[in-house]
Amino acid sequence: MAALFSAAAAASVRCGIRALLRGVNRRGAAGLTGAQPPFLFLKPAASAGNHGRLPICSYSTEAPKDGKAGGPGAGGGGGGRKGGRNDWKSRLLQGDVPWDDKDFRYMLLTAGGVASLLLVLYLRDPGREITWKDFVHRYLDRGLVERLEVVNKQFVRVILVPGVDASEASYVWFNIGSVDTFERNLEAAHYELGLEPSRRAAVIYTSESDGSFLMSFIPTLLLIGFLLFTLRRGPMGGGMGGGRGGPFSMSESTAKMMKDSIDIKFKDVAGCEEAKVEIMEFVNFLKNPQQYQDLGAKIPKGAVLSGPPGTGKTLLAKATAGEANVPFITVNGSEFLEMFVGVGPARVRDMFVMARKNAPCILFIDEIDAVGRKRGGGNFGGQSEQENTLNQLLVEMDGFNTSTNVVVLAGTNRPDVLDPALMRPGRFDRQIYLGPPDIKGRASIFRVHLRPLKLDPNLDRDAIARKMAAATPGFTGADIANVCNEAALIAARHLNEFIGVKHFEQAIDRVIGGLEKKTQVLQPTEKKTVAYHEAGHAVVGWFLQHADPLLKVSIIPRGKGLGYAQYLPKEQYLYTREQLFDRMCMMLGGRVAEQVFFGKITTGAQDDLKKITQSAYAQIVQFGMSEKVGQVSFDLPRQGEMVLEKPYSEATAELIDEEVRNLVDRAFQRTLELVSEKREQVEMVGKRLLEKEVLDKADMVELLGPRPFEEKSTYEDFVEGTGSFEEDTSLPIGLKDWNQERGEIQEEPPASQEKLAA
């Protein structure tokens, strides 16, 4: 019987696998009719005829038509990294049973076990449930009962005498409430039927297991099976490390070796020429170390790329990976931290082992502040694990020697939180800061992002790049890329054939101000208040010398604001007290206009007041622009940062608050005087805004006359006196062939160098 079950299971599994691989969906119904007892019995069937015929599934053992052998080398279980986990399927379809493939054997054993269990369940004799009344009148009264088996004090199995009709089941069963009740009822039935003790059926009490205890082992068996599956698949996964790091391969480094699929080159990176030269020099260190060693120089161990978000740190690293002819390994700082203790240091070790094997190479750690934060911030579990990972990183970087030729680059937005031991020379020798690009850098970035765009043929790309660069002060590379993409989307939205200047202007408005909400309903009084509020900003800024020139003012709601004014800030890095004071007055123009024209104030100036307060505190606390507070500077807390104690006394804090209040009051009084003096101009601008909703600089000149101060608005005006109109992209003579290895024979020096030497 066991051999019969095994043969049937193997044949069923073989047929099922082949049918599944051929895409044939077959549904089989082996429903069990009738009620079933609450346990598993292994009873032989009444007759051998119930077994039916075994399923037949033939297969061929001929060689494949292409003449290739179907052995392990053809891609079975041991066919190498690419020998594939799925090659056994193709071999099976070709008629070759891949017994040598581990995956196939494991799957066959699993499927055989499941099929055997299902077959046993299907072929077992479940008996038939009856009632007490049927038992008494159909079996006990007719003398068909050989014995009664009380199983587990829950039900009674009625064993029938031999010779009962084959149509009847080999046994029947019925439930009992309790043994005492069953015994009383059975005794009463014997008395009613007049059965003498010699004719009464024997009662046997047994205890049998129904297999329910096996359910408690299922979670343990599943866990053991998962561990065995992981252990077996780890070395076969084809991934890096091949299961070296334990059952879950958690200690393996997640660093990736960048291949030639990176299509970003240095020509696609603009606005950070100095940083590009630094990165090129690092590649040149690895390609031509003799150029520096001849002069006694040592190759730097690494560099940190820092700066605000969107300035091109990761993009510069991608360009290095796409253009450097040395191996480039990249990893994210957060990938070192896991919930398991010890994973971070192990991954650091594994990463540097990979780097040493591929030396000379470049190792880039993005967002290194996730793992390189200053130590000593607490002794919690996560903090301790992060410190252990940092310690391992420090040891690995300091363990390099000059002959290793591995350069470590890192990117972060928060260099101030990095551990000093990580930033010291000998680990990260250089700190490369990538700030927002200047106007020349923005023009170069616009040229890069304008390449794939379908511009109007009548437009000059260089002219568009310069114009947009002048209109986007403070924009980073990511902002400029967003502007170019928004311009293309706007042109496509209106089914335009080309992208024009107006699309770029609308894109800049979209990026700065947010989504335009023309359908937002404003009450007439609210709309008038917004118009005079924006008119106050525009007029005050128009007549203040150090205020930014106005480009556009609108009362069409954008983003969270109900009004929108666009200015053109100057390209400057130093601000005087007078310049900051004029900016405060310009921001107060809206609130003062509301008070002058309506005699009441609204909540519309909340954002203006927030900026004014920040500016006032910065002047008093950070810039030392208060005579009473003195020439001191304290750090202001960052937004969302918790401050436990201030770096100054309570008396100084009260003095700072008083100075800030006096500064804001003086700005308010000056703005009130200016708005009262220019009341007619403010009213004209407010009425025109209610009519047109959007005013540009030409409309302001028409209403207010030319601005009484000199201002710069074009690209040429801004770059005048800087030496050139374009960004300097020339390379030092030692980096002309930065990406090529120099031969042992030195080339002859250029004629200019010969003359210089003479």
UniProtKB/TrEMBL annotation:
Any Gene Ontology CC annotation: m-AAA complex
Region of interest called Disordered, as start-end residue ranges on this chain: 63-87, 722-758
Membrane topology classification: Multi-pass membrane protein
Segments traversing the membrane: 104-123, 213-231
SMART domains (UniProt xref): AAA (SM00382)
Keyword Nucleus annotated: no
Source organism superkingdom: Eukaryota
GO biological process: mitochondrial protein processing
Subcellular location per the Swiss-Prot or TrEMBL entry: Mitochondrion inner membrane
PROSITE patterns: AAA
Cofactor (UniProt): Zn(2+)
Keyword terms, alphabetized: ATP-binding, Hydrolase, Membrane, Metal-binding, Metalloprotease, Mitochondrion, Mitochondrion inner membrane, Nucleotide-binding, Protease, Transit peptide, Transmembrane, Transmembrane helix, Zinc
Main localization (coarse): mitochondrion
UniProt-recorded Gene Ontology molecular function terms: ATP binding; ATP hydrolysis activity; ATP-dependent peptidase activity; metalloendopeptidase activity; zinc ion binding
Biased composition, class Gly residues, residue ranges: 69-81
Enzymatic reactions: ATP + H2O = ADP + phosphate + H(+)
Residues annotated as domain AAA+ ATPase: 299-438
Family of the protein in this entry: In the N-terminal section; belongs to the AAA ATPase family. In the C-terminal section; belongs to the peptidase M41 family.
Protein name: AAA+ ATPase domain-containing protein
